[in-house]
Amino acid sequence: MAEITPIPLAELTTLRTGAAPERMLDATTTDELVDALREVWSRYEEWFVLGGGSNLFVGDEPFDGTVIRVLTTGIERLPSPHAGRVRVRVQAGHDWDDLVAYTVEHGLAGIEAMSGIPGTVGAAPVQNVGAYGQEIQETLVEVELIDESTGEVSTAPASELGLGFRTSVLKHHYGGAPIRRAVILSVTLDLAEVGETGRAIGGDQLRRALGITGDETVPLARVREQILAIRAAKGMLLDPHDPDTSSAGSFFQNLIVPEVVAAQLPSACPRWQVAPDLDAATVIPLESFDGYVPPTQTVRPEVKVSAAWLIENSGITKGFRLPRSRAGISTKHALALTNRGHATGAELAELARYIQARVHSEFGLLLQPEPVLVGVEL
Description:
Radius of gyration: 22 Å
Shape: globular
Oligomer: single chain
Number of strands: 21
């Protein structure tokens, strides 16, 4: 590891906010990353790791602690125990979209719809990233990580990570600490080997995005090309010449609410069922059956509702800004808060709170921020 002169976090995050921290370390190998973490933990000081800086909202005051930049890279191809599949082990600091490009080039399917998502591979399982019907949990096998409580390196299968909608046991949720305080060192995925012929597209979201109505096989390169074009049109691809891309992507999460709550929203609000509405099975041992069958308990589904629709229908339009503020809503996507030029963290936080208040006033729902907040309160 190398201790460097601290760089302002405004230069290292896509929202472009944040002063230089008290201390900064660079880790370019796994051993350096492990050593850096153990050294920081032994000092009992404040810390956080920084990858691509695309899911981070930093306040204006200097961070009073150590920032560890994860700069590890590398893709290792491994055999899979499943026929027709290949595993790849990727270092945590590797650029996520570079990994997607690699898999598409080598005919490996499973993450192509997540093309263009900014950030690093190590951050992907923490957030359980996803797009157009694909999520990393569908292909994730395991992660190698180091736990803060012990300083020990171990391998955790995907089943132990509590993966859910944009969450895991490793995620810093707003207002709380992660269930497991650990840092990912590498990620292993299991992907389908489809070659240049591609694969059939099953998910409705991706089929709509690609304009597919039949059962034709689609090359992975076409999927990637179309997804990149869609993200560019929404200002979701980093472009130094486009202020709409100076953002943390979707700033607010789509809400997961009980079905009864979703039913009270206007019918025009987009919604997607996220849990099956199934009758619970009741098993009664034959020897104890007395002829009475208790009524089944119906599992009520939860529903995902569109945060972008809630924002726009609370009276906040694309391109909206508060008076004299350098922070604004993207002109292309209502979920993206953008830095229109030297905006402070305070300006962005003020805008975020205003949006929360308007949506809560109109619909009774509180939007939750998706980025990790450092030195900021909403």
